[in-house]
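Bumping my old thread because nobody answered last time. Still need a sequence for this structure:
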């Protein structure tokens, strides 16, 4: 049995992992998928100063309050910055870091530091008076390669504006711990791929393992079976996933 903590990215919440959680739990694993402050059912807790440090503290609290140890910590998209910060603070609780189509900022750097200036300025132009980035949801789902109408209908009402501080604020300058690291690159990006560079860097670094999924950015929604298989370590390093038969358990109804 493995303990997983799954950290979502921008605009999402812990809800986005439901299919993967169901698969991992059915295989006997312990799974936690917290929702970061200001998102999902915690959107009402957002403040103008909500940023990366708050999101790191959210996940550290899960590790400490539930006394989780030997954790496989997974970060999706901007959640890559969060899991890096968690590893800086509590490496003693972790077994492995997994970056799912995620940003990988170095200590002292932010997600904004990794974005082209034009994209960073675009996001800054969408910040509302509460300090949150408000997206055109349909355009965003197109960019995340969510083609299925039922998936989009489920995702759209759950998305929330994202605190800009989560992208703007730098990680602490503390050195990174010596933990195993894995990068999972999602390869279906008709509109361009912001994460190919991180995958290439992982592929050239023997300290990393690189896997690929033949799906869009939101793999936890579009390819939960293949993703769960990778997370449980069944597939060998570097294996292309297009041949895997995916499993898509139905999304649970809200209470």
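Sorry it took so long. Here it is:
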């Amino acid at each position: 049995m493995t303990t997983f903590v799954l950290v979502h990215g921008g605009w999402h919440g812990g809800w986005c992992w439901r299919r993967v959680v169901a698969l991992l739990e059915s295989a006997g694993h312990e799974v936690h998928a917290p929702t970061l402050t200001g998102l999902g059912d915690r959107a009402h807790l957002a403040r103008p100063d909500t940023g990366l440090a708050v999101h790191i503290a959210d996940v550290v609290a899960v590790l400490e309050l539930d006394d989780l140890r030997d954790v496989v910590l997974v970060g999706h998209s901007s959640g890559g910055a969060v899991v890096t910060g968690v590893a800086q603070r509590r490496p003693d609780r972790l077994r492995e870091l997994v970056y799912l189509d995620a940003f990988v900022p170095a200590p002292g750097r932010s997600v904004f530091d990794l974005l082209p200036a034009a994209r960073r300025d675009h996001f800054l132009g969408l910040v509302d008076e509460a300090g949150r980035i408000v997206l055109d949801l349909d355009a965003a789902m197109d960019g995340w390669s969510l083609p299925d109408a039922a998936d989009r209908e489920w995702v759209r009402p759950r998305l929330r504006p994202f605190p800009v501080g989560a992208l703007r604020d730098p990680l602490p300058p503390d050195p990174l711990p010596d933990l195993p690291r894995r990068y999972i690159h999602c390869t279906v990006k008709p509109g361009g791929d912001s994460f190919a560079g991180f995958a290439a860097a992982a592929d050239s670094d023997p300290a990393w393992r690189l896997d690929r999924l033949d799906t869009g950015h939101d793999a936890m929604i579009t390819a939960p079976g293949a993703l769960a298989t990778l997370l449980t370590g069944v597939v060998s390093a570097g294996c292309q996933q297009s041949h895997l038969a995916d499993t898509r358990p139905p999304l649970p109804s809200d209470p």
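Strands lie at 3-7, 30-32, 71-76, 94-100, 132-133, 162-163, 181-186, 208-213. Let me know if any region looks off to you.
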